[in-house]
Amino acid sequence: MTFRERLQAWRYNLVPDHLVGEILTKRWTDNAIPFLALVATLGVFGSIIPGFFKLTSLQESTRQLGEFSLVVIGMTVVMLGGGIDLSVGSIFALSCFSAVYVFFILDQSIWLALAAALAAGLVFGAINGYLVGYLRLRAFLTTLVTFIFGRALFDILVTTYAADVQLSQASSDVLDFIGDGTFWGLSVSVWLAIILAIVTHIALTRSRPGWHVLAVGGSRRSAHNAGIRVRRTVFMTYVFSGFCASIGGFLIACRLSGAGPGTGLNLEIMALTAAVVGGVSLGGGRGSVVKGLMGAVIVLTMTNGLIRLGYGTGTNQMVLGILLAVAVTIDIRWLKNRHKVLNEVYVAPVYLKMGETQSAAPGSGTSYELDNRLSAADHIGLGELEGPEDVILDRDDHLYCGTRHGEIVRFFAPDYKRSEVFAHIGGFPLGLAFDRDGNLISCVGAMGLYSVSPERDVKRLSAETARSWTSIVDDARLRDPNDCDIAPDGRIYFTDSTKRYDAHDWALDSIENRATGRLLVYDPKDGSTKTLLDGYRYTNGVCMAHDGKSLFFAESWACRVHRYWLEGPKAGTAECVIRDMPGYPDNINRASDGNYWMAWLGMRTPSFDLSLRHPDMRKRMTRRLPQDEWLFPNINTGGVVKFNEKGGIVETLGDLSGNAHPMVTSMREHKGYLFVGGILNNRIGRYKIEGADPNWTSPASYWGAKP
């Protein structure tokens, strides 16, 4: 290794560039900006305003915050549903007046005053919901009209009845407690805001109506096509917004024991600014109640802080306008360009120097020398299949394979000319294995580990494993489960090729070449999935040894095969048994003579091997060139290799013509024939093996003779 290469290895292997892309993919990163803004706002105003964090100051501020947060929660739900509500200020004011009128002028109970406030909010919310949801009017103009009407009505009522309210002698301990009392150090308004925020959050994230709101906000047309009642959903968001504003109006009525011309003034601008600053998207479908509440704290802290610093209303309005403009710009630009940023930073190649290998070219005389025997294989399902990545046969000699359409197809013995869809799983069924009871186990790309019973019942066994809390990379979800095999005790061992890419992005993983593949085990006794080994370059095929005490698994991009011991003095450890192969290994399966078959999905090339030593070049390539011009591993030429327990190469087969099976991802020996599959093929090959046991089958090798 030259000094320059050593520097590249240190730079790209030790500096975790990939963490930037990983962090940007997380949903919680959307909360980072508003959270940092919240911390900065509290820090700045807390340091320049004397007594900012004193208990008496905080109690008064939190009362306002509770009332304001209720309005922001309602605004957040409307925006998540794809709308906007500019009338919350007038609804807030009218609800306040309704409560004041009933309690102070009509001299009724506080609970009747609450009912009046709620009625005012629900009526206006229903009007907005009907006009926007059912009549499909523009939300901005519609709620602007109701805001103007509601504000005018409030001004008339306040002017008319202001003197009557001031002369009223009505009083209530309940009203005083709601307005000025505390419970466990927090005001009633704060407790109500907390309770409503929790309920709303649970409803949005854990209930069908909440999912409908987010779906409608994301795309109304798609939601309608999915059978969601879009108009009713939109209607209910505005009713809920009116409800929230009315609760806030009732609380301020209790706190101030009256209503004045300034009640709810500019509240709609503050609530909208709070929601957007908190990270709730104006486009709908993206945001949360927590984000809205963070925005509420930021806006209220800033406006109150400016007032305490001696700045007037004009300054407050200007600051709110600047905040809103900045938040909207960030929201729109980030939403539009997020995928571009991720494309620029996500793929983070590392340095790898591949070992010298022997040639597999015909006439080379090495143990890896390929011949042309696979070109003579018979065809099964020619033109009927797309991507039979793995093939397997049952005790009755029927042949099974997965397809890229999410189906498992069964070909009937003995001639395999008749077929049927055995099961539809979805995703991309990859590795296959039969358990003792005849259930077909399949690794399904981007979905997990699945089981199909002989009666064709599909069951998901596992879609995740325990999360490593020390890693930013989300390794809980199974992203690319690839191949599986079953131990004598029923435990299922399978590979998850990469923790950073889904199955269809295997090419990106090969270019990055980061060691994120792992070996896992699923225990049917308790339903648990555990990671046994981690840190391999695209773990792929896995096969139980003939004695059931160890297993072999392939590491594709490193061109190696490892043996993992289940029993004996080496239990729990792995050792490399084949290294520096000229081909990329894929599935591994048992052979009738006590050896093992291994697929080569492609062959190494000097150009790609050289590129692995230049991560900076691969990085520039992914940034500057269109994907169809990238340098990928060669997967157009492969073959089949037989190796023994010690890793010695026994035999190789290939298709040099390239007509039938130039690329191989799986093979399965059964009664003297080798059945060959390929993820890019449109057929299954059947090749007669010279000298093979004509009675040997894989199910019998694993589970004994047919009962």
UniProtKB/TrEMBL annotation:
Official protein name in the record: SMP-30/gluconolactonase/LRE family protein
Predominant location category: membrane
Membrane topology listed for this record: Multi-pass membrane protein
Domain (Strictosidine synthase conserved region) ranges: 482-568
Transmembrane segments: 32-53, 73-104, 110-132, 139-163, 183-204, 234-253, 265-285, 317-335
Keywords, in A-Z order: Cell membrane, Membrane, Transmembrane, Transmembrane helix
Keyword Metal-binding: no
Gene3D superfamilies referenced in this protein's UniProt entry, alphabetically: TolB, C-terminal domain
Subcellular location field: Cell membrane
Entry annotated with the keyword Transmembrane helix: yes
Organism domain of life: Bacteria
Entry-linked InterPro entries: 6-blade_b-propeller_TolB-like, ABC_transp_permease, Strictosidine_synth_cons-reg
